[in-house]
Design goal:
single chain, 311 residues, alpha/beta, Rossmann fold, Helicase, Ruva Protein, domain 3, 7-stranded mixed beta sheet, two-stranded antiparallel sheet, 13 helices, 17% strand, disordered N terminus
């Protein structure tokens, strides 16, 4: 530990600038450990351990924990409070930004701790809500993710994270619902998404946040839902989905009209209409939220020859 880290077992207050809210409900803590399916020696990367309530529960379940925190106070506090676990190579603390962490660095830490499996890890955390989407994309990819080359996917068992309930609803939303959006498609296409704890009230935290929370799991799929043809770039898929949702109150004809010409769109809508067994004019008048992942793959495939994305 760097010399400028202050060691202290005295609790420290949550930092609003870091979006910190300490989880204090033991039932929720155990629910996260259960959802992570922790086994002895399992490699677990914890995001933002804070005062270590979840860290200690993971250690008690036998996990080898790499805890990363941007808050120097947390590192100093846990250095003393969990000294035995550190000495026994159950816990490693790392001061830094989770978004700057790479898999190779993590695997080296877990190998040094003697984790049972050093090429796969489980990621858990009570996330700062302002960076939730960035963390999800960091580990799970985005609409344009290339599964074969994404740095984290092949090293990820599952992601078990605390999120704002509204965000969790979006992650697993289905078509034709208000919550369904581009994030829903990005996460569901490449991951199995499920609630572990769907409702966690503000009183489970100190200080209480102004929103209801929940714990959600994302487990990478071996094969994405509705795979794109090999000759179609995921950049095209991203362009079409994001373009369609850019102004979700408008119809597909209007939202995508600023990206593709009329002839290209007619081809795209005709392909989706055939897939859905509906009239082409009807598809053109739909809003983005009405299309399933398979519909968007069909539309992207038809529009790909007219797109400059990924070229």
């Amino acid at each position: 530990m760097p010399a400028n880290f202050k060691r202290s077992k005295q609790p420290f207050r949550p930092d609003k600038n870091l979006g910190q809210h300490w989880l204090v409900d033991p039932a929720v803590v155990q629910g996260i450990v259960h959802a992570a399916q922790v086994t002895p020696g399992q490699a677990v990367l914890e995001i933002g351990p804070g005062q270590g309530v979840l860290t200690k529960a993971l250690l008690a379940a036998g996990a080898k924990v790499l805890a990363i925190d941007l808050d120097r106070r947390a590192i100093g506090f846990l250095q003393e409070d969990c000294a035995d676990a550190i000495e026994n190579k159950q816990l490693t603390l790392h001061h830094g930004d989770i978004l700057a962490m790479n898999p190779a660095e993590c695997m080296d830490y877990f190998a040094a701790m003697g984790a049972t499996q050093t090429d796969k890890l489980t990621v858990v955390g009570n996330l700062p809500y302002q960076i939730t989407s960035r963390i999800l994309v960091h580990f799970c990819g985005d609409l344009a993710v290339d599964v074969a080359t994404h740095p984290w996917r092949k090293h990820l068992n599952t992601l078990v994270v605390m999120v704002q309930k509204e965000v969790g609803d979006r992650l697993q939303a289905v078509p034709s619902t208000k919550a369904y959006n581009a994030l829903s498609i990005a996460m569901q296409r490449h991951n199995k998404v499920a609630w572990a704890i769907p409702v966690i009230p503000p009183k489970a935290f100190k200080p209480p946040p102004k929103v209801t929370s929940g714990v959600i799991t994302l487990t990478p799929r071996d094969i994405p839902l509705s795979p794109l043809p090999d000759n179609i770039s995921t950049a095209v898929f991203q362009q079409v989905v994001r373009g369609a949702f850019a102004q979700r109150r408008k119809t597909l004809k209007n939202t995508l009209g600023s990206i593709f010409d009329k002839e290209a769109l007619n081809e795209g809508f005709a392909a989706v209409a055939k897939h859905r067994n509906e009239p082409t004019d009807h598809v053109a008048g739909l809003r983005a939220e009405a299309l399933s992942i398979a519909d968007f793959v069909c539309l992207s495939t038809a529009l790909a020859p007219h797109s400059t994305a990924g070229s």
